[in-house]
């Protein structure tokens, strides 16, 4: 391999993030979902054919179409800005000014380096600056940014920045604890390890506030 190829492989094999924004081309949404499905279907057919699979077998006949629809409509659906959750908020009329924590939000994402699953839990907290969101809003934000080829550090940052914008406050924090199947099922094949990432904004940069959040979610760490 050339030095450039080795460098690119090193980034991918070590799961290194290079950008906090999802790397999308300017023409990413010029094709319709249906057009993308047809193109991806042909690519999946070619992959399976190249691997030596018999695509006339009843079990495999529909696989290219199923995979293409899954990519566009499901596991990478968060790439489409039209699917972004609405950003409605409510006045904090009951004047709750303490920390609000939503923990154990399910994370299903896909590692952009090997296109294998990332599975885990997200824990989110915020301190109101006059507005609040419905509890399900935080789940939807996690789901939206998770449904794209991802790096866990980027996912954590994107969740916090989106909620900071929606809530009009810097006082938002997110911790994700997840297993990466590209680590668990290939390479070193360590099925026990998980990756923990955190992003703290505003008051959560204070040691006391951050420790309170960690105590709520029962996470023993030195963040």
From TrEMBL:
The protein's annotated pathway: Cofactor biosynthesis; 7,8-dihydroneopterin triphosphate biosynthesis; 7,8-dihydroneopterin triphosphate from GTP: step 1/1
Reaction(s) this enzyme catalyzes, per UniProt: GTP + H2O = 7,8-dihydroneopterin 3'-triphosphate + formate + H(+)
Residues that, per the record, bind Zn(2+): 111, 114, 182
Superkingdom of origin: Bacteria
Keywords, sorted A to Z: GTP-binding, Hydrolase, Metal-binding, Nucleotide-binding, One-carbon metabolism, Zinc
Chain segments carrying region Disordered: 1-22
Signal peptide annotation: none
Transmembrane intervals: none
SUPFAM superfamilies according to UniProt: Tetrahydrobiopterin biosynthesis enzymes-like (SSF55620)
Major enzyme class: hydrolase
EC number: 3.5.4.16
Gene3D superfamilies per the UniProt record, alphabetical: 1.10.286.10, 3.30.1130.10
Domain GTP cyclohydrolase I positions: 40-217
Quaternary structure, from the entry: Homopolymer.
Listed HAMAP family: FolE
UniProt family annotation: Belongs to the GTP cyclohydrolase I family.
Protein name: GTP cyclohydrolase 1
Organism of origin: Flavobacterium cheonanense
Species classification: Bacteria, Pseudomonadati, Bacteroidota, Flavobacteriia, Flavobacteriales
Underlying gene: folE_2
């Amino acid at each position: 391999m050339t030095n450039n190829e080795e460098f690119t492989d090193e980034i991918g094999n070590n799961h290194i993030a290079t950008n906090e924004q999802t790397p999308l081309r300017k023409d990413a949404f010029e094709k319709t979902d249906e057009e993308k499905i047809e193109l991806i279907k042909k690519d999946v057919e070619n992959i399976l054919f190249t691997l030596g699979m018999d695509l006339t077998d009843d079990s495999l006949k529909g696989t290219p179409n199923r995979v293409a629809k899954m990519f566009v409509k499901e596991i990478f659906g968060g790439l489409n800005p039209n699917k972004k959750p609405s950003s409605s908020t409510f006045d904090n009329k009951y004047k709750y000014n303490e920390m609000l924590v939503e923990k154990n939000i399910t994370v299903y994402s896909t590692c952009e380096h090997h296109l294998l699953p990332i599975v885990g839990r997200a824990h989110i907290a915020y301190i109101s600056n006059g507005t609040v969101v419905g509890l399900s809003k935080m789940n939807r934000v996690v789901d939206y940014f998770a449904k794209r080829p991802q790096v866990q550090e980027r996912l954590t940052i994107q969740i916090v920045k989106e909620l900071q914008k929606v809530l009009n406050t810097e006082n938002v924090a997110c911790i994700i604890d997840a297993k990466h199947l590209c680590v668990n099922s290939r390479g070193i094949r360590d099925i026990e390890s998980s990756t923990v990432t955190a992003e703290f904004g505003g008051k959560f940069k204070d040691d006391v506030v951050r420790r309170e959040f960690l105590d709520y979610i029962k996470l023993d760490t030195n963040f």
